[in-house]
Amino acid sequence: MTDAQQPAVLPTIAYDLFAKLDLRVATIVSAEPHPNADKLLKIRLDDGTPEGRQVCAGIKAWYEPTALVGKQVIIVANLEPRMLRGETSAGMILAASDLKEGAVPAIDGKPGADARDVLLLTVDRPVKAGSKVS
């Protein structure tokens, strides 16, 4: 990877700011294409609460919805809910993104979906939904 392709390192933050994030393990219960967005999936999560939650994730180019069911992922549980194209997204699923081997960034410097790999952050063995990540 060349220096131009390296992700920018953001300024450091105080531990107290990081500690405000509520990172949890959640199990994907269902996933389907978002009805009003080409790049989003609408995902139902078991986050350890009785009602669970819904999130919208921009991973449609990399994951088939049915292949996600049962997968345990890491979420930001205390992210303020927001509407994404008419659907509530109450949290964020964490993922890593990298250029594929040999991929060349587009002219504007931003690679397209076909030039990137996106991988959901998961746990290496089953854990109870809602478990705290630290």
Can I get a quick summary?
This protein is mostly beta strands and 134 residues long. It has helices at 15-18, 65-68, and strands at 23-33, 41-46, 53-57, 72-76, 82-84, 87-89, 92-93, 95-99, 116-120. The longest helix is centred in the first third of the chain and has 4 residues, at 15-18.
Order of helices and strands: HEEEHEEEEEE
Kindly give the count of domains. Answer: 1
Kindly report how far apart the N and C termini lie: 30 Å
Query: What's the helical proportion of residues?
Result: under 10%
**Number of DSSP-assigned strands:** 9
Quick one: CATH superfamily? Nucleic acid-binding proteins
Detailed description of the structure:
With 134 residues, the chain is mainly β. It has a single domain (15-120), classed as Beta Barrel (OB fold (Dihydrolipoamide Acetyltransferase, E2P)), CATH 2.40.50.140. The chain is 6% helix and 34% strand. A hairpin with a 2-residue loop joins β5 (82-84) and β6.
Task: Detail the topology: elements first, then pairings.
Elements: H1 15-18, E1 23-33, E2 41-46, E3 53-57, H2 65-68, E4 72-76, E5 82-84, E6 87-89, E7 92-93, E8 95-99, E9 116-120
Key terms:
134 residues; mainly beta; OB fold (Dihydrolipoamide Acetyltransferase, E2P); two-stranded antiparallel sheet; 2 helices
